[in-house]
Amino acid sequence: MIPLHTIKQFFNDMRRQKLRTMMTMFGIFWGTCSIVLLFAFGKGLTEQQIKSQKGMGENIAIFWSGITSKEFKGLPKGRHIRPTENDVKLIKRKVENILRISPEYSRWNVTLKYGKNSTLRGIVGVWPEYGEMRNVIPEFGSRFINERDMKEKRRVIFIGDKLKEDLFGEKEAVGKRILVNGTPFMVIGVMEHKKQNSSYSGRDNRKGFLPSSTFQTMFSRRFVDDFVVQCQPTVAMESVRHDIFKILGAKYKFDPTDDETLSVWDTTEGFAFLRNFFSAFQMFLVGIGIATLITGGIGVSNIMNVVLEERTKEIGIKMALGARKSYILWQFIAETFLITAVGGVLGFLFAWGIISIFPLLHLEEYIGIPRIDLWGGIMVTIVLGIVGLVAGFFPARRAANLQPVQALKLF
Fold first, then answer.
1. What is the pLDDT of residue 50?
2. Do 76 and 47 fall within a single domain?
3. What is the pLDDT of residue 318?
4. How far apart are CA 328 and CA 120, in angstroms?
């Protein structure tokens, strides 16, 4: 515990050196505020970006057709490899570490019409598991494509929330019929709004989703435009990719090590890069805050040296009356801690106030929602303690090493 007379002495020093003390405390205040805000906003921004990336799906890879770049068993390079839906079924059956998989057929500039409202949009034909894999989640009261839709080749459509606004406005869409290139389809679901800042064929909120069996019947497609694979959370996508190339390589007679045979976008690599980037970015911001705190600590050390000069006689009298060096040492360190603590608490409270008010600005779509986490608070506490100890130790040691007679003569 800090002795009561030390606290009284602290406030006496503040009254005598108001400007200097306030400027010194402001350095600690601003450093603490900077660290807390940088931690909070860095965390909010990181979570928002990762959430937006996950809008397209987690642990997924997209495979497109490609052209062989290597000769294989007497066959020339330059052959076009175009997977079919049967190939996707073969992959699903043989690759153990696949959690979900779906072919994807695409068609652009399809006329979608409801009443007098008409728009040109892209539609895709997919399997039922595509919804969970790509985070295409139905709103309450609606559903995604199911197995019965596939088996019976039903003319049903699931639409994105933006497409729903274009066609229906504020009206209910589920259960209504729309025309897809003049053919009536029933709307079975509307996508729940989601954040998505990456895509490979346009945003999901503007698309229509059909059962792949219905799409094939309607547009007579043999080859898939692409197929989407989701691996088990504990399995690296690289191993799944290797198995897929091996299976298709055996069927179509190409070298499984030929990376040009199929074009692949492995989104797990993007997630890893994003996490590393934002971790480094956050550490950079925190470094700036720590540097500010150190600057404030230098100010605390300077003011304690001034206090030492002003209280030399007092120190001499106390030591002449029997005060030990350790008492003088800890008295000055305690006063330094008080200056650091007051500045730190005020800085923390100010930052907390900004973070509490920020959601009212409705900017979370761009930079997320900042929030103070446990590790950020622990780090600020540790840094403040180190700054206070270092800033107060040297003036305190100098004060404790004064000889009583020398101290009285210096006054």
1. 66
2. no
3. 63
4. 82
pLDDT digits (tens, 9 = 90+) for 143-173: 999 999 999 999 999 999 999 999 998 899 9
pLDDT of residue 411: 45
SS (H, E, C) 75-91: ECCCCEECCEHHHHHHH
Please indicate, yes or no, whether residues 403 and 329 belong to a single structural domain of this protein: yes
159 and 94 assigned to the same domain: yes
Q: Tell me, yes or no, whether 150 and 291 share the same domain.
A: no
72 and 42, same structural domain? Answer: no
Q: Are 75 and 169 found together in one domain?
A: yes
Residue indicated by tokens 């409705």: 362
- Residues 78 and 139 grouped into a single domain: yes
Helix (H, G, I), strand (E, B) or coil at 198: coil
Low-confidence residues of the chain: pLDDT under 50 = 1-2, 410-411
Q: Which domain holds residue 30?
A: 4-53+272-410
CA separation for the pair 248, 284 (Å, rounded):
45
- Radius of gyration, alpha carbons of the chain: 34
Is pTM, for the whole model, over 0.85?
no
What pLDDT does residue 30 have? 76
Angle at 177 between CA 175 and CA 182, to 5 degrees: 160
Q: What is the pLDDT of residue 321?
A: 58
Residue with tokens 């060096």: 325
Helix locations, 311-373, DSSP H: 312-320, 325-357, 364-367
368 φ/ψ sector (left φ>0, alpha ψ -120 to 50, else beta): left
pLDDT of residue 18: 66
Which of 243, 266, 289 is at the close of a domain?
Answer: 266
Helices marked H in 311-324:
312-320
Q: Are 27 and 343 in contact (CB under 8 A)?
A: yes
Same domain membership, residue 401 and residue 295: yes
| Cβ neighbours of residue 120 closer than 8 Å, sequence gap 6 or more | 109, 110, 111, 112
Determine the pLDDT at residue 280: 78
Strand 183-190 to strand 80-81: parallel, antiparallel, or no bridges (unpaired)? unpaired
